[in-house]
């Protein structure tokens, strides 16, 4: 349904808002610190139930017309709450309430209501100037594991709010702009041309652009090169830079039983890979000299070495392992099972000046694994707490969507979806990037056991990069 279908309804609401004094003209101090010749005071609507119901009905019809598929909604406190409540009743969508401050007793929650991790929440707001209130609400929703991509606004004052929200990954849909309201009031004799001109001059001269990152930009919508500047861990920064430079997001898992086979494969696929992932204790003839040779191969082919050791022990042991293994590996994988002290040990380990970091296992690609949703959530929280040492997460689903400085390492990828007889599940390259939210995609046996590893690596690299470019393009469209 096109926006034009709502013209009569919008015209009627504007005239009613003017008549009840919810749309005022004069000289008003705004929340953003500037004076305004026009003020929308939609709080007064609670005394006019028919008007409030009409507006709620219009909000929901508009949401349906633009195809928003949120599963919960949240009104920005406090003015938008009555309309959001009515929208919830009309739509059947569960409503969440964001407190401006947590309770000092009981659960001490900021977000009240029932929801699941990863659900998409539609924000409803009354009037937008800078968009700051929406960003504050979105930040708390995202921190509780919700996804926020859309906000429906009753009135856009056209002073920079849409741009501020778009820059932070939220698409704003407004029922009414201030310019449209002025035109309706002028056409119906409520305002004269002089007053309309004054307000329009005010809009043009008073744009409010926020520099505050109240909610970070979306990881999946930014290019790797852009994200490298946002990484707090030096290895994450280097990986993101290298992906942009090589135009590749391929990580090859070289799980082979002997050293000569690893060298053969590296010389075939090294130029296509950003990262080579090893299991050094899988190689039967591994010896200290292999470390130096692998370092030289990495320099020659310009890739990063990730030892998939999956550290998981007390802090003192992990510190020693990290110091030993990073003498030749750039990064290591590790479990979060021992909590924050294990990451503290990584932080305090004595290593050389090369970029180092860890990828923490938040999810596994093997069927029947014992990782639970609460474990994954706690792992993401630890990653953010130790962002200086954590390069990213090993994950099968989009995690840390609003933390673009982290790299999501997604394993279990082959040219065709399927699995093996030991519980490994495979997804396609495009699914790994688009559906799973992967940044750096791990491909192993599809390449190492191929008749032509070089050609297979090149084909998968191209598919992965095409999927990444599509993801960026879709993000730009969603944010426009």
UniProtKB/TrEMBL annotation:
The keyword Lyase applies. Keywords: Decarboxylase, Glycosyltransferase, Lyase, Multifunctional enzyme, Pyrimidine biosynthesis, Transferase. InterPro entries: Aldolase_TIM (IPR013785), OMPdecase (IPR014732), OMPdecase_AS (IPR018089), OMPdeCOase_dom (IPR001754), OPRT (IPR023031), Or_phspho_trans_dom (IPR004467), PRTase-like (IPR029057), PRTase_dom (IPR000836). Pathway: Pyrimidine metabolism; UMP biosynthesis via de novo pathway; UMP from orotate: step 1/2; Pyrimidine metabolism; UMP biosynthesis via de novo pathway; UMP from orotate: step 2/2. CDD domains: OMP_decarboxylase_like, PRTases_typeI. Residues 249-460 form the Orotidine 5'-phosphate decarboxylase domain. NCBIfam families: pyrE, pyrF. In the N-terminal section; belongs to the purine/pyrimidine phosphoribosyltransferase family. In the C-terminal section; belongs to the OMP decarboxylase family. The keyword Hydrolase does not apply. Its EC number is 2.4.2.10, 4.1.1.23. This is Uridine 5'-monophosphate synthase.
């Amino acid at each position: 349904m096109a926006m034009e279908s709502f013209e009569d309804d919008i015209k009627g609401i504007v005239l009613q808002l003017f008549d009840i004094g919810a749309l005022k003209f004069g000289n008003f101090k705004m929340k953003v610190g500037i004076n305004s010749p026009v003020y929308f005071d939609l709080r007064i609507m609670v005394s006019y139930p028919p008007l409030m119901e009409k507006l709620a009905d219009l909000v929901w019809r508009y949401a349906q017309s633009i195809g928003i598929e949120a599963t919960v909604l949240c009104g920005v406190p406090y003015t938008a709450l009555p309309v959001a409540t009515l929208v919830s009743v009309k739509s059947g969508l569960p409503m969440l309430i964001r407190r401006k401050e947590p309770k000092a007793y009981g659960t001490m929650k900021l977000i009240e209501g029932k929801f699941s991790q990863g659900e998409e929440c539609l924000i409803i707001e009354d009037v937008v100037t800078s968009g700051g209130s929406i960003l504050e609400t979105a930040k708390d929703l995202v921190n509780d594991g919700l996804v926020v991509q859309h906000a429906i606004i009753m009135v856009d004052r056209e002073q920079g709010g849409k741009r501020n929200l778009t820059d932070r990954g939220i698409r704003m849909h407004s029922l009414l702009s201030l310019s449209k309201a002025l035109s309706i009031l002028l056409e119906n004799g409520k305002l004269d041309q002089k007053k309309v001109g004054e307000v329009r001059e005010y809009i043009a001269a008073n744009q409010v652009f926020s520099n505050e990152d109240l909610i970070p930009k979306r990881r999946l919508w930014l290019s790797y090169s852009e994200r490298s500047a946002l990484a707090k861990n030096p290895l994450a920064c280097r990986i993101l830079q290298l992906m942009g430079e090589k135009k590749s997001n391929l990580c090859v898992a070289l799980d082979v039983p002997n050293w000569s086979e690893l060298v053969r494969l590296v010389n075939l696929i090294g130029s296509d890979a950003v990262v080579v992932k090893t299991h050094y204790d899988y190689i039967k003839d591994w010896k200290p000299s292999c470390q130096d040779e692998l370092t030289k191969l990495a320099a020659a082919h310009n890739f990063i070495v990730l030892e998939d050791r999956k550290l998981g022990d007390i802090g003192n042991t992990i510190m020693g392992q990290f110091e030993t293994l990073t003498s030749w590996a750039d990064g290591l994988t590790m479990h979060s099972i021992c909590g924050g002290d294990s990451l503290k040990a990584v932080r305090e380990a004595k290593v050389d000046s090369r970029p180092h970091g860890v990828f923490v296992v938040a999810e596994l690609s093997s069927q029947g694994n014992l990782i639970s949703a609460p474990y994954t959530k706690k792992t993401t929280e630890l990653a953010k707490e130790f962002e200086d040492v954590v390069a990213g997460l090993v994950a099968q689903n989009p995690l840390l969507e609003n933390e673009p400085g982290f790299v999501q390492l997604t394993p279990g990828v082959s040219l065709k979806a399927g699995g093996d007889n030991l519980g490994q599940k495979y997804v396609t390259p495009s699914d790994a990037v688009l559906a799973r939210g992967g940044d750096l995609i791990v491909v192993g046996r599809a390449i190492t056991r191929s008749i032509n590893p070089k050609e297979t690596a090149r084909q998968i690299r191209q598919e992965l990069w095409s999927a990444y470019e599509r993801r960026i393009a879709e993000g730009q469209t969603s944010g426009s």
